[in-house]
Amino acid sequence: GPRSLLARRLRCSMKATPRFLSGSTETVKVTFLEDGVPVEATATVGQSILEAAHDNEVELEGACDAQLACSTCHVILPQEIYDTLEEPCDEELDMLDLAMNVSDTSRLGCQIKISKDMEGMTIDIPQSLDAR
After folding, report:
1. I want to staple 61 with a disulfide (CB 3.0 to 4.6 A). Which of 51, 53, 72, 75 is the partner?
2. CB 67 within 8 A of CB 18
3. SS3 6
4. How many helices and strands (H and E) does the chain possess?
């Protein structure tokens, strides 16, 4: 019933925490594939892929400000990283349904927190068809 929907929404919004506290200074090296061009980046453990992209001046749009209301921060992750992540919640899946070029390992960048085991991973930013 409506109760479970509320619980689901709650679970979803609890995961999307505000900007991480800069207590963590651990960083990992990741590579963003921006239109197929590799961009080396340094990401701080605990921040989201979206924040890491912005910190490294990578073009990854976050139109809705991490509110799970758009698919502009859609990224494609390596299978082995994707498999370690929590399942996407329904809102995220709904947004991924709207994203271009979705793959089996697509996620929204605002929902994925950088962790130590992402060291060296490649994050593919699929080309969107708008204004590229």
Report:
1. 72
2. no
3. helix
4. 4, 5
Place of tokens 């085991």: 117
Dist CA 127 CA 26 (whole Å): 30
Cβ 53 vs Cβ 109: under 8 Å: yes
- DSSP structural state of residue 51: H
- Does this model's pTM top 0.85? no
Closest C-alpha to 51, from 100, 17, 97: 17
- The CA distance from 122 to 43, in Å, is 12
**CA of 56: how far to CAs of 43, 44, 113, in Å?**
8, 11, 16
Query: By C-alpha distance, which of 78, 110, 79, 116 is closest to 95?
Result: 110
What is the separation, in whole angstroms, between the first and last Cα of the chain?
Answer: 43
